[in-house]
Design a protein that fits this description.
The protein folds into two domains: about 170 residues, 3-Layer(aba) Sandwich (Rossmann fold); about 170 residues, Rossmann fold (3-Layer(aba) Sandwich), CATH 3.40.50.10490. Helix content is about 55%, strand content about 10%. It has 14 helices and ten strands. The strands form two sheets. It has a five-stranded parallel β-sheet, sandwiched between helices. α9 links the parallel β6 and β7.
Length: about 425
């Protein structure tokens, strides 16, 4: 894969973030940009991230909540993604933490924040609209700790060093995953949380393999911050390696999937995207990327449906038929000849995803799957026409690598010959 990235550098003169000429290895060029940008960002911000983890742990220990704020489209997908990660922990031994998502569906963000935000809360903002800025101001006035990824007046602001909106979003996703993962470290050092006494030494229990740098300090904040800072760097390196594997192994698969999507759109077809939990928010992001291309890209909007979007449909099907049918029934309702089903699953074995892919194949629809681990049943039983595998068992890293892959796929649809 290093040769792939080097070849891309030679063909683009080292430039990234631009539409590649027809003979350029675009996958390698985009991988190179992600690796370089991620390394710069996390090297510069590791100490601040570690200290923010401490500040957030103090807020949660006092009964505070995470309040995610954002507009529609890709920002809305991040609002939903960060809240599900905090409320539904996917790592053994991690606690569920309270999180609420406020997006434009509920009206003006500032007005929503005015009736929701409390003094011990943590507000995390996506986007840079006037409404987001006003909502951050409301949360700050209430005493909430504020975090943002644009200049909206937050106490903790992080600026991703890239002009590519896809790369920026991927860095932000890794960052809020890391805040969730490593914030838990400070719960195991109760004496380091404001207003609490020291107790037993640190014991990460079943999740200790995630934190190889952590020692058993209970009264030395700087030592624990240093350990967390090292873990931030380790996690950034992990996702870089997984992106390299994912995009390297899947280069030809992505090109073939992009060709199927171009044919689909040319014939008036649509993408039907689906997934569960964090993967549902990734499906939301995929649909937003197709419907509303990045500003300045010159790409046309493409028809896409999010089969995880409507809670009334999902809960009706789950209640009356069963969770396994929530996507396959929608494919029966919506699927038309020429459509493409795009499925996301970190395990590759979710029953409702497998039934959806089976229904799509029965109806003659082309299928694309993004999976983790070893690909699960989707790979073993060849349940999709194109399968992109992120070979990891760590769900946050899988989701981050999958985001890179489907963002690159979105670009390939418009640029590949």
């Amino acid at each position: 894969m290093a040769r792939l990235a080097a070849r891309a550098r030679r063909r683009t003169g080292g430039r990234t973030g631009v539409t590649a000429p027809a003979d350029t290895d675009l996958v390698g060029a985009r991988l190179e940009e992600r690796l370089r940008t991620s390394e710069r960002f996390f090297a510069a911000e590791a100490d601040r991230i570690a200290r923010l983890c401490h500040r957030m742990a103090e807020r949660f220990a006092r009964g505070g909540r995470l309040i995610a704020l954002g507009g529609g489209g890709a920002d809305g997908s991040d609002v939903r993604h960060v809240t599900v990660e905090f409320v539904h922990p996917v790592i053994v031994g991690k606690r569920a933490l309270p999180a609420l998502g406020l997006s434009v569906e509920g009206g003006a963000l500032a007005a929503q924040a005015a009736v929701v935000a409390e003094a011990d809360d943590i507000a995390i903002a996506f986007g840079a609209s006037d409404d987001v800025t006003a909502a951050v101001g409301v949360c700050a006035a209430r005493g909430a700790l504020t975090i943002a990824f644009a200049d909206v007046g937050a106490e903790w602001a992080f600026a991703a060093p890239s002009d590519d909106p896809f790369v920026r979003q991927e860095l932000v996703e890794t960052l809020y995953h890391v805040l969730w993962e490593l914030g838990h470290v400070f719960f195991d050092h109760r004496g380091l949380l404001e207003g609490r006494r020291g107790g037993a030494v640190h014991d990460a229990g079943a999740s200790s393999f995630l934190y190889p740098f952590l020692a058993e300090q209970e009264d030395d904040l700087e030592a624990v911050v240093a350990d967390v800072r090292a873990s931030v760097a380790m996690k950034a390196a992990e996702v870089g390696a997984l992106r390299t594997q994912t995009l390297g192994d899947a280069r030809d698969t992505l090109l073939a999937a992009a060709a199927d999507l171009r044919a689909c759109f040319a014939a008036g077809g649509r993408v039907l995207a689906l997934g569960n939990g964090g993967s549902a928010t990734d499906a939301m992001d995929v649909v937003a990327d197709f419907r509303s291309p990045p500003a300045g890209s010159g790409w046309p909007p493409r028809a896409a449906l999010d089969l995880a979007a409507d809670p009334a449909i999902l809960t009706a099907l789950a209640n009356d038929i069963g969770v396994e049918a929530i996507f396959s029934r929608q494919i029966i309702a919506h699927g038309r000849p020429g459509d493409v089903v795009l499925a996301l699953s970190t395990s590759g074995g979710s029953a409702n995803v497998i039934l959806a892919l089976d229904e799509a194949r029965r109806r003659g629809l082309r299928t694309i799957a993004f999976v983790g681990y070893d690909g699960g049943r989707i790979v073993a039983e060849r349940l999709a026409d194109h399968v992109i595998v992120s070979r990891s068992e760590h769900i946050p890293r899988i989701q981050e690598a999958q985001a890179s892959a489907y963002h690159v796929l979105r670009e390939l649809v418009e640029t590949a010959a």
